[in-house]
Amino acid sequence: MSVAFRRESDDEHMEPKFELPIPPGPNWVTARGLRLTRETVDALEGADAAGMDEEAAKKHKRVLRYWRTRLATAELRPAAEGDAVAFGTRVTYRLNKQEKTVAIVGDDEADPNEGRISFSSPLARAMMDAAAGEMVDFAGKPDTVEIVAIEKLSEA
């Protein structure tokens, strides 16, 4: 019989489960980011995996491995001065005639909906080292973003 007509188990046609991808580069964290990472690891370690079905337990272990790795590699960055855009600053900028404020934080702490962007994001990289009042290039266009104000983050 031809191999094309043989039915193997459905398991061999399922998508493979991979580890959660670790963002490239350093794992810089703010004091808040380090605290949140520790809390996440503690919560995951405290969860009752015995009460989960096999797939849920595997997923839980994958997520726990990710967060343990992130905690082990976390680099707490010193507080920024606030005189230039840097990791750990809150930046008010103007882009397309709209003024917005974002905090520049670590990859795992980033949440654009809460006004937190990763230091590795294109916008943060474009603004790095700029001072208030300075215009910076963004998305291949010169003088696109105006830095309005900079302050250091004061959250723990």
UniProtKB/TrEMBL annotation:
It comes from Sphingobium cyanobacteriorum. Residues 1-21 are annotated as: Disordered. InterPro entries: GreA/GreB_C_sf (IPR036953), Tscrpt_elong_fac_GreA/B_C (IPR001437), Tscrpt_elong_fac_GreA/B_fam (IPR023459). One of its GO terms (molecular function) is translation elongation factor activity. The keyword Protein biosynthesis applies. This is GreA/GreB family elongation factor. Keywords: Elongation factor, Protein biosynthesis. Pfam families: GreA_GreB. Residues 1-18 have a biased composition (Basic and acidic residues). The keyword Transferase does not apply. Residues 82-151 form the Transcription elongation factor GreA/GreB C-terminal domain. It comes from the Bacteria.
